Amino acid sequence: MKFKRIIVIVMDSVGAGDAPDAAAFGDAGADTVGHIDARVPLRVPNLRRLGWGNIAHIHREPTEVIGSYGLMEEQSAGKDTTSGHWEFMGNIVETPFPTFPHAFPPDLLQAFTEKTGYGYIGNEIASGTEIIERLGPDHFRTGLPIIYTSADSVFQIAAHNDVIPLDELYRICEITRKEVCVGPYEVGRIIARPFIGTQGHFIRTGDRRDYSRLPKKKMVFSYLSESGRFVAGVGKIGDIYAHIGLTESYHTGDNPADMKALTEQLLAHRDREGLLMANFVDFDSQYGHRRNVEGYAACIEAFDNMLGHFLPLVQPDELLMITADHGNDPTWKGTDHTRERVPLVVYSPALTEAVDLGIRKTYADLGQTIMDNFSLGQLPSGTGFLSELR
């Protein structure tokens, strides 16, 4: 069976238990969904109907399963958004992106100053919400952007909209991407972090932008668009893939906006063949990194509620796949992502059996399934599961 449209939803950071190589990342025993459910029993009837109860470590509830389900393991040398998403589409990242456990070196920051025309404050490994509160007054006094990183391969630039206008912040980030973070400093992402408000009440806005490094391998998006099919990205999908191969992109600021845009685009493309892919970021950015278990649980439940309205819109000629790009166990030490297997559920009204898809040995199995559906050939990695669906 083949489908006219495929919809992929990525629940950013919603991992389902430590991967076989988790110990190498310091994450043996991490389990995002399992540890959340142990603290706050999750009410997720729609995800359960799709098979979550068979693959995630959550409390048992009698449920009729209408989706197929499995787990996927990452082969890329990282546990970040970029490496996970790229692997989905057939590009396994074999060399880790550079990270800066002791903050950025002087020569990198000198290049930043020379190329952008700005100095900086910060240069720390920090939580974004904490650093803008602490350095906000200096930011207003000096007019300088706040620079920081994390355990991920990121160069983050924060600025208040009243100090550095949004367009100027984006310009600084574009220069940093193209002229500063190059060569050995080519991080996975440059991230614009605009914020508003007053001291003690600073709020990061939904105008965040991610400037991804350019992939060196051809991925599924390009194969699809070159064949004349649409490839629509929702949320930060366009940023993650550097807009390569997308025919259209809809940037959004939070999960409800993601679902609204995803629904609108699903209905808008009913007469066309192609792929619609969305990243729902709130799980990770709002709750995972902040180690907020209760907030994370509420976010999953809110997503499940939205999913209950979305599932009836999926038609028999459409295939929905829901997964995650890495873990971010809010009960874990530190504030970093966690190396985990990720859940995979697959649904279409045309399918009549719930199939156990097992443990997939690479995220690229998802991309190869898309390739097989549209008869586009074989990726360098990945084994499709289209023929296993019933």
From TrEMBL:
This protein's encoding gene: deoB
Cofactor(s) listed: Mn(2+)
Regions annotated as coiled coil: none
Binding site for Mn(2+) 2: 284, 289, 337
EC number of this enzyme: 5.4.2.7
Main location: cytoplasm
Job description of the protein: Isomerase that catalyzes the conversion of deoxy-ribose 1-phosphate (dRib-1-P) and ribose 1-phosphate (Rib-1-P) to deoxy-ribose 5-phosphate (dRib-5-P) and ribose 5-phosphate (Rib-5-P), respectively.
Pathway noted in the entry: Carbohydrate degradation; 2-deoxy-D-ribose 1-phosphate degradation; D-glyceraldehyde 3-phosphate and acetaldehyde from 2-deoxy-alpha-D-ribose 1-phosphate: step 1/2
Localisation: Cytoplasm
Known catalytic reactions: 2-deoxy-alpha-D-ribose 1-phosphate = 2-deoxy-D-ribose 5-phosphate; alpha-D-ribose 1-phosphate = D-ribose 5-phosphate
InterPro entries in the cross-refs: Alkaline_phosphatase_core_sf, DeoB, Metalloenzyme, Phosphopentomutase_DeoB_cap_sf
CDD domains in alphabetical order: PPM (cd16009)
Gene3D superfamilies in alphabetical order: Alkaline Phosphatase, subunit A (3.40.720.10), Phosphopentomutase (3.30.70.1250)
SUPFAM superfamilies for the chain: Alkaline phosphatase-like, DeoB insert domain-like
GO molecular function, one term: phosphopentomutase activity
Residues engaged in binding Mn(2+) 1: 12, 325-326
Bound cofactor: record note: Binds 2 manganese ions.
Protein name as annotated: Phosphopentomutase
Domain Metalloenzyme: 4-376
